[in-house]
Amino acid sequence: MDRWTGKVAVVTGASSGIGAAIVQELARAGLTTVGLARRVDRVEALKGSLPAEAAARLHSLKCDVTNEEDISRAFSYVCAKFGGVDVLVNNAGISRDCTALMTGNGQDVREIFETNVLGLITCSREAFQSMKHRGSDGHIIHINSVAGHQVLDLPRQSVYSPSKFAVTALTESMRTELRNQGTKIKVTSISPGIVKTEILDGIPNVEQLPMLLPEDIAGAVIYVLSTPPRVQIHELTIRPVGEPF
Description:
The protein is α/β, with parallel strands linked by helices and 245 residues long. The chain has helices at residues 17-28, 40-45, 52-55, 68-82, 106-134, 160-180, 214-225, and strands spanning 8-12, 32-37, 58-62, 87-90, 139-143, 186-192, 235-238. A 7-stranded parallel sheet has the order 3-2-1-4-5-6-7, with helices on both faces. Helix 4 packs parallel to helix 5 (106-134) and helix 5 packs parallel to helix 6. The two termini are 33 Å apart. The mean pLDDT is 94.
């Protein structure tokens, strides 16, 4: 991780769960870390659990990833304030209690795809432009899901999985695009099984299943970043022991 010391990381959806764990680990690892979230007070509160040196490296910035102008403003601020982006973790993701064929699902479906797919694309574009402009061999990491590789039979969750399948395809598309442009920027998809976070609220009986913790996924982010420049972890799947899917 030494080569990332003093570099700049941006993490979306940083106010809770996996995102909150990731920003703390990146700040501990020596990166200037900017957590994007709508609830910036919760990102600020994370500093209380960090050593003073790491807490000074953690910054919060209000951003709604479903709003393209919001994203552009946030990345422009990061570039002006901290010099640019070297690491992007696309963590922001939502699910909704709906199915593909139910009536009145339009708003829920739009919110899922605007957050999980369109927001990820826009943030990746902004981070890439910063990396390319500065000649940074950066790293883009998507927090995907096993549901992006296998349709899971979870009650009223049939739209979430297609949004994550899109992330799987986008990872490969971006890898090809980055290679064709002659860059050494890496892109990685991290696909966890069930993680104990707020996204599970309202899903019946899910608490009976084996679960990962947010810090398990944060550890995976550190692992993929710590690989040598010649190594690209393209897809990393992490499941809790005993997961039945």
